[in-house]
Amino acid sequence: MRIPDTEFTSRPWRIHEFIDGFVLEDVWAMPISGGPDDLSTVVAYATSDKNTSLSSNVVVRELFALRWRLGKLLGWDSERQQVGKRAVSLRDGLPEDLLAVRGPDMVTTPFKSVYLTHDEWAAEFSASMGHIVMHHGWVKKDDGTYYSQMTALVKPYGFFGKLYMAAINPIRRLVVYPLQAKAIRREFPQLHPQP
User: Fold this and answer.
1) Dihedral, CA of residue 32, residue 125, residue 90 and residue 167, to nearest 10
2) Can you tell me whether residue 129 is helix, strand or coil?
3) Which of 22, 109, 133, 189 is the most buried (most CB within 10 A)?
């Protein structure tokens, strides 16, 4: 479920220290819940090949397959576009305490982990359209349980980056994220049952 941007901007996440120039695309309450110490379990799931939320639905799978084919064909994801080449990694500006635990990289997408704390995880990716950051915050609900708040942040590269992000916005918001959330809702409890 999409939630107001203020659910991200009003919380004292450490990521706010490092995202100058990034545009907040959207904030989602993901259908993953647990206790106060469970973010590391969520990250282990999100980064593993057991997370099939991008491949279990044929529509999402084909959209991502098309995106990666176009990226290869048009050079969107070439080595020179990557973090460390075109984009400076957020890790390069992290304070010492956040450098301690980097977290795992994603297996099914090219996102590389930036840092992992008790209640935050950030990963980044760069392509010809922009520098993209995915942030997961572990948020306490009124009933005492926690949920994963996923935020998409982008620093678009020029006119092409802005045009690309505007073009995929409705696809992300109306198709990809809802179908991905449906798969996670079904899959995560089976892999990590709550006591």
Assistant:
1) -90
2) coil
3) 133
